Amino acid sequence: MAASHGELFSRTSLNVVCNLCAKKIQAVADMLLLTSDPRPVNTETVMALGESYSKCRDTLIARTKGLAILTRDVRAHLMNNQLHETSEALQELTDLVVTIIECSSHAAYLAAISEIGSKQAVPGVIDRYKITRAKCDIEQGCTRLQITPAAELSPQVVVDVSTDIAKSLTILTNASKLASDANDDQFHKEQFKLAIKSVTACTSTLLSSIRRYKTTLDERSRLRCVSFSKPLVQSCQALVDYATEPEHVGTQAQLTESGKKIQTAILGGCMSIASSCVQLCNVTRAASFDTGNPELLYRMTSCCAAIVDGAKLLSQALRDKASPRTLPSNVSSNSTNSHHTNNKGTGNNNGDQGHTM
């Protein structure tokens, strides 16, 4: 989700980016944090960490340290009326938060199945998260085409959007082709093929419209892109609805009570970060039209502090495999003192803001 060039960037464009960032974080959180569906996460970033909980934990804790820097950048750029830089910092923060959510979900799975009595998930012919995430990214690209002002929908922005859509479509169609090939049931084998054809046809009409818009840059061509993006989103949704039916996605892990508590603790810590970031996106959008409003600036500061506190909660949950809120006070205090002596004065403890999105 690349930003427009600075000279074309307006408050309306920043508003678009804020909305898309909030929706992206919310969508990934819905898929991985709110479902409590214990399965491994098989994205490239997560798979590079392997099946080692300790490696996943240490990488996650290291990545959370970047949250404080990026949240400060978002606030500082907005206060200096640097709209393009605000957008870039917010998108970088969003990408980091999505990675943290994915790694946290995987870490929670690894920790939970390590408990005696827990059983690993059994994969199906379809990876539910991978194709649902691809579908969401396609929706994001199409939404950007639909709501970005025509004056700011430059050829470079259109190229960036179409590239992102094509990448996600490749993930979606490749997964469906593999599922078709692996299926013994003739109906399902053919149904996957037909669904792919539907998505491919819709993609061709949209990309043709996008190529036309790049040469004309007129409103009629833009509206044509908007029109043909809608059936693409619908066909992708239909494919994902079908592909994620129970017989295609395998079975989730079976967790013991202790495994469930560990999973909940880690996911809860991550939820504090995700929900606070969604709030930061929303407040940034409002503040971009009223940068002198002290209440909105205070809310931005509170959101930034809540994100940092959420990072502490997640780090402690990863180390202790338990929620800091449920640990005995002496254990929680000792863990905090031993791991965070260099973080005094980072803000109010607003981590509890984060569990409703």
Report on this model:
With 357 residues, the chain is mainly alpha-helical. It is built from 11 helices and no strands. The protein has helices at residues 11-32, 44-47, 53-79, 83-113, 128-147, 155-182, 186-216, 219-243, 257-288, 294-320, 329-339. The longest helix has 32 residues, at 257-288. The protein is flat.
List keywords for this structure.
357 residues, mainly alpha, flat, disordered N terminus, disordered C terminus
Q: Please bin the fraction of helical residues.
A: over 70%
Q: Are there runs of 5+ residues with pLDDT below 50, and where?
A: 1-7, 326-356
Computed structural class: mainly alpha
Radius of gyration: 22 Å
* Secondary-structure element series: HHHHHHHHHHH
Number of strands: 0
Tell me briefly what this model is.
Helices cover 72% and strands 0% of the residues.
